[in-house]
Amino acid sequence: QSALTQEASVSGTVGQKVTLSCTGNNNNIGSYAVGWYQQISHGAPKTVMLGSFLASGIPDRFSGSKSGTTASLTISGLQPEDEADYYCSTWDHSLSAWVFGGGTKVTVL
Amino acid sequence: QVQLVQSGAEVRKPGASVTVSCKASGYTFTNYDINWVRQATGQGLEWMGWMNPQNGKTGYARNFQGRLSITRNTSTNTAHMELSSLSSEDTAAYYCVRYLAVRDAFDVWGQGTMVTVSS
Questions:
Q1: Bridge partner list, A73
Q2: What is the pLDDT of residues B99-113, one digit of tens each?
Q3: How far is B13 from chain A (nearest CA, A)?
Q4: pLDDT for A70-82, tens place per residue?
């Protein structure tokens, strides 16, 4: 059972806008920035978003936001190369630990 | 460019220990915390612990208390993760990752090291 809750899967067609969510509580998302990490075919994770800031080399069709205890990653204009697993993560001060969501598998139809 | 390069795959028997190394380049090693994250096959990411390379201070996830040790060698810009009392449940890919305090998130990941625990 992950501390952060993500959809198991999200799908879309090329060019479509998709939004992934990450839900926590006031001990984690409500208090800290949320990072988003892309993992393609079980390779090493790659940072996509650091809070609302785009990571270096990531196309600007990716964006991140947060409202209360839920963070979101939006891909505006889905591309075939975006097919991957996406994980959210943040610090949890009640656990004194970094926590991850269970991951969302994005499929490009 | 900023890089974290990890040591190669390891195979250990149950009860043994393993050390995975993570060599940093392209930045001042002592200015950024290093974290360790692992991923069992087909599973999600699991945080293990962190280390401040400047002073060696560490913090470990409760699941690994007592059998995880994260150290560093500032002369070689390398972080080391030692996990002891291995069981088959420790079979996983292990990643080092740099923490970017100004953004309060992880930014650069190592390529991963596969550790297999098998009798």
A1: A20, A64
A2: 999 999 999 999 999
A3: 24
A4: 999 999 999 999 9
